[in-house]
Every structure is written in C-alpha cells, then in structure tokens.
Amino acid sequence: MSASPSDTPPDTPDSSRALGRLQAFLKQIVYGGNDGIVTTFAIVAGFSGAAIDGAEKIGALAVLVFGLANLMADGVSMGLGEFLSTRSKRDLYDARRRSELSDLLARPEDGRREIAEMLEGRGLSAEDAGVAAGRLVRCPDLAVDLRLAYGTGLADMRTARPAAEGLITFLAFVSFGVIPLVPYFLLDPTRTATFGLSIFATLGALSALGFLRWRATEDSPVAAISETVGVGAICALVAYGTGALVGG
C-alpha cells in the first residue's frame, strides 16, 4: 500500500532535490583534498628548495618520512577537527531550536509579530506578512525553522553527520595528499627529475580536485579548475621560496 502525501515525514527531503553524495560531501572533499595536496607538496617543495646544491644533501628518504608523517598526522587532525566542528554546530543548532520552539509555544503572539516583521523585511507587504505569520504560527516547527534561518543565520544541522564528514575529510586529505609523494616512491631521487615529476603529479591532483568541484557545482570548468590549481600553486611557491631562503 503506497503512502499518501500526508504520510511522508516532514523532514524527508524531496528525492528530486536530494543532493548526490559528491554534492553532499563537496566541502569535505575539496577542503580535505586541497589541504592534503598543498600540505604534502609543501614538504616536497620546502626540501627541494633547501637542497639547491643537490638532493643528496637531504635525500628522498627525508622527503618520504616527513611527507608521510605529516600526511597521516594532519589527516587525522583534520578529520577529527571536522568531526568536532560539525558536531558542535549541530549541538548548537539543536539547543537553539529547542529554545526557540519553547519560546514560540509559550508566547505565540510575540512569535507571530516577530515572524511578520521578518517577512516584511524580506519584501512582503505588511498585510501579506501578517496573514502569512498568522498561519505559520499554527505550525511551530516550520515557524521556528524560518526564524532560525532568516533571523539568526544558523544553517539547519539536523541532517549533519559528524562521523561521516570527518571520515570523508580524512580520506580526501590522504588520498589526494599522497600524490605529490608518488614519484619519490617510484624513481631514483635525483632532484631535477623527481621533483619535476612531483610538480606534474601535484598539478594533476589539483586539476582532478577542480574537476570534482565542477562536476558537483556545474559551474564553469575553467574557473573551478584554474582556481583550485592557482591556490595550490601559490602555496607551493611560498613553500619552495621559504625552503630556498632558509636552506640557502
């Protein structure tokens, strides 16, 4: 027996508007992936910049040891940080929502007046805002959601998944961040060849991340990829320059 529209849970999103997995976790993928690439390549570029007179002064082993250690430590830190941040924002939203709901149920007329003022400020006429507010207070959950969204700017965090978002951040960080190190696993560590290939690997990783961003946002592919690559290139130049300055 099929469910009628009235049987559909109010918090269930319309399937036609539901975000895909890439879109749902886009922030974590881009944030973790970009930081992983830049952080790891900063190690490679910093060591290469310091080894102006030859890679053997420092050696590829140091690049791998420091790069992998930094990759795992920062990846775990970022994943746990995303978990704690998302959980804290969700707890804050839940607490504020309970408070707003309790206040609205206790003083519905004050709530109606505040909603009317809010709607009028969003462009409705005073008459339409009053009528709409009077009907909205009959559905306290919806009225509270509107007050939170337009009155406080708090994003709805009820569907947030702290553990999943933290895990995606960690996996994106490690998956993309290991790419600049791949040439040091495969090749004889001469600075010119290996570091050059690491640059190409890094540009490829940044381009792939920009491609994922474009696929999720359907924005301009040139803008999505060039912005992602541009940010990474600036960080890499700073790291190389710092290594050259200190090491030289």
Automatic annotation (TrEMBL):
<feature type="transmembrane region" description="Helical">
    <location>
        <begin position="58"/>
        <end position="80"/>
    </location>
</feature>
<keyword id="KW-0812">Transmembrane</keyword>
<dbReference type="InterPro" id="IPR008217">
    <property type="entry name" value="Ccc1_fam"/>
</dbReference>
<keyword id="KW-1133">Transmembrane helix</keyword>
<feature type="transmembrane region" description="Helical">
    <location>
        <begin position="29"/>
        <end position="52"/>
    </location>
</feature>
<protein>
    <submittedName>
        <fullName>VIT1/CCC1 transporter family protein</fullName>
    </submittedName>
</protein>
<dbReference type="GO" id="GO:0030026">
    <property type="term" value="P:intracellular manganese ion homeostasis"/>
</dbReference>
<keyword id="KW-0472">Membrane</keyword>
<dbReference type="GO" id="GO:0012505">
    <property type="term" value="C:endomembrane system"/>
</dbReference>
<dbReference type="Pfam" id="PF01988">
    <property type="entry name" value="VIT1"/>
</dbReference>
<feature type="transmembrane region" description="Helical">
    <location>
        <begin position="224"/>
        <end position="246"/>
    </location>
</feature>
<feature type="transmembrane region" description="Helical">
    <location>
        <begin position="193"/>
        <end position="212"/>
    </location>
</feature>
<feature type="transmembrane region" description="Helical">
    <location>
        <begin position="167"/>
        <end position="187"/>
    </location>
</feature>
<dbReference type="GO" id="GO:0005384">
    <property type="term" value="F:manganese ion transmembrane transporter activity"/>
</dbReference>
